[in-house]
Amino acid sequence: MAATITGGAAKVATDAVAAATGTGNAAGVSAVSGASQVAHTGLALVMDGIEYFITVPMVYLSVAFLLVAIAAKLVRSFRAGPPPFQLALYPVPRHPLIASLRDTFGMPQILKIEPLFWFFLVMYHVGFLLLILGHLDILSGINLVPPESRHMLGAGAVGVMVTLPTFYFLGRRFRDANRVISTPGDYLLLLLLLFLFLFGDLMSWGNSWTASGFVMTKADFARYFDGLASFSFADPRTVLHGAHYHFVVIHVLLANLLFITLPFTKVVHAFFSLPLNLVRRQPWKES
Amino acid sequence: MEGILSPAESAALKELFEKKLNGVMRMYLDTCARCGICVESCHVYASMPEVKYTAVGRAEVVRKIFRRYFRMQGRFAPWLGEVLEFDEATLNAVYDAAFSCTGCRRCMVHCPFGIDTQQVMAIAKALLIGADREPKVLSMLADMSIAKGEGIEETRADYAQALKNLEGEVKAIWPVPEGTSAIPYEAKEADVLYVALAGSHSIVSAAAIMNAAGEKWTLSSFEAVNFATFVGDSGKAKRVAQRIIDEATRLGVKEVAVVECGTAFRYLRHMIGPQKFRVVAFVELIDRYIREDRIRLDKSRLPESVTYHDPCQIARNSGIMEEPRRILRAISDRFVELRPNREENWCCGGGGGLVAMGELDFRMKSSRVKADQLKASGAQIVTTACENCHSQLSDLNEHYGLGMRVEFLSHLVAKALVLPGERFRR
Amino acid sequence: MADYETKKTLDYKGLKCPMPIVKISQELPKVGIGDIVEVLTTDPGSLSDFPAWAKTTGNQVVETRQEPGLIKIYVKRLK
Hints:
The complex is a heterotrimer of chains A (287), B (426) and C (79).
Chain A: H1 11-24, H2 42-55, H3 57-79, H4 96-106, H5 108-113, H6 115-138, H7 157-173, H8 176-181, H9 184-209, H10 218-229, H11 245-261, H12 269-281
Chain B: H1 7-19, H2 23-31, H3 43-47, H4 55-70, H5 73-76, H6 88-98, H7 106-110, H8 117-130, H9 136-150, H10 152-173, E1 192-195, H11 204-212, E2 217-219, H12 227-231, H13 234-251, E3 255-258, H14 262-270, E4 278-281, H15 282-291, E5 306-309, H16 322-331, E6 335-336, H17 354-357, H18 360-365, H19 368-377, E7 381-384, H20 387-399, E8 405-408, H21 409-416
Parallel strand pairs in B: 1-2, 1-3, 3-4, 5-6, 5-7, 7-8
Helix pairs in contact in B: 1-8, 4-6, 4-8, 6-8, 9-13, 10-11, 11-21, 15-16, 16-21
Chain C: E1 8-11, H1 19-27, E2 36-41, H2 46-57, E3 60-67, E4 70-76
Parallel strand pairs in C: 1-2
Antiparallel strand pairs in C: 2-4, 3-4
């Protein structure tokens, strides 16, 4: 275990680094900067406070906001009453519910009209689901991937599954009619996702595909997530060491921003696609 | 600043907008991902590729107003969704969106979420009525229909006389026994109330077919078409339809058969709620007569190749697709399909009130793709089951020099009717 | 037969829906107030449509005449 501690590190910190890096990172950590372990004053203290806010209270606030805002939106839309008359299209499929599920999850219209776009959409949406699963897997209670593994779920491939399509979606927005129909919000949302994914990739690709790995491992993140899950309000800085910590903070910040803005964006299609497809496929009872 | 509406005017428009925000509409406005899959769906865009002539281009005009007045970003970050305020330019864009859309809903077939552009345009139309900018010819026609309902007793005798004068034309196709009426009117024992249009062409063939089938039917005093739906005035649309509902209820008929008119049929079939009678399209009735062997048709009278244009409101928006094809196969050996067809068929380009509004230049330019599709079929005759489509197809035929004949399905059927004892080819 | 002069005869025979009403609303303003135009049509519905239209637009159908195959409607411009 080679850990170069620069500056006057306190014994507690050294122990923590050893504990954190020693558990999972088989390849070892070549260098851990302990600069942040220096007794903080002035701006550094402010920075610590901001980073703590982002990684703990803001996560709770964003997730709570997301859930409440989405629930409010769903309630408001479903309570606003039915349309004045039925809006189904014909011919009516034999099983409207199955057809709606097919429309929602299979997107046959897009497959027919723009197969490449469909390919990236499927890759992206499957990737996104795996991404959620991969993050849940970090919790020490769920271990689809062994806790001591240096890999996250998918060993970096899940990151590719969402990052590559996001580049494609962004490029596609600049093309032909899509450029005219796109609003600044459409570009910003894709950029937010892109940077969020790239910072995530930094961690997962680092651990899975580079010799030295990312500084922090699945086991390290597990401590942070367990802390969040148990509402310990502990500063993740005590379990996530090194200067690379700031990349984690940026990743968490972007995720928080996504959670907060999501209810106001077209991402609500995740909730409305199935009900709207049912409106299209299921006629009201014959009058 | 010039063109800005007063706060009171804006507030009034906002209120009209809000009235349209049912649950599904809210989802339509929030869900669009601007994926662009609908871009190629619109016949207008396919004929004259400008983004304002796409489903998403049109709906975005309404969404940008929605974001401005009903979403937080309208207050805090209006640039995010390029919101629109109520002003001169916005209302012009609203008009262009609403009345370049025929309400055919072909885009809804292709949208991954099934967003109904015609519904979104219903907001646009409501705003235009509120701003007193709706096409006046459409309101005038709707008002005429309502006044007709109120004053029908004053003109009933004249109308009845006109029907008597028309009976000869019906009898020339299918004779009726002495003493019976070839165009029953106000018949108390009728099973079917046939709702036609003003023109005799919408009465004569249909009457002959129903007489041939031995149907107990009676003719409505009113025209089926509902111009209030084109203008987007749901209150007036109800009053126009109510005339027919009241008449059908008073006469106690089992069925209301709607003339070959798309908007009339969809409105009466799907938008008036449960009634004591069923609503059928006249082509459904013909199909039933053929299947029940109540009428016999001679194939030899139609030697030309013939194709069928699916009217949007009858086919993809109401589900009548196979009936007209069965009918055509009963009168022709040379039926060819248009490509695409059924729910994928291109709109004729005359819907949404455009034919009534005139707009010949726009209608012809925006339907080039329809003309190309007709030409590619190689058919000599194009049939349809909608008055509006018939008018537009006739204009296209002339404008693009297609050299086809445009026919109502019912007219071809009437010409193929086989009299008792007559020799015919099945 | 009433004794009045018609300024114009408009032939709307065989037109499709809703052209007779659309056309009269365009043509009537072209004659003077108080003038009468004669409309020729074959549409039975016109016998109710024209009076209803005249009522909503503030004009007047002064007379209708019928014979098999032809309907004549006399419309007076009042405003």
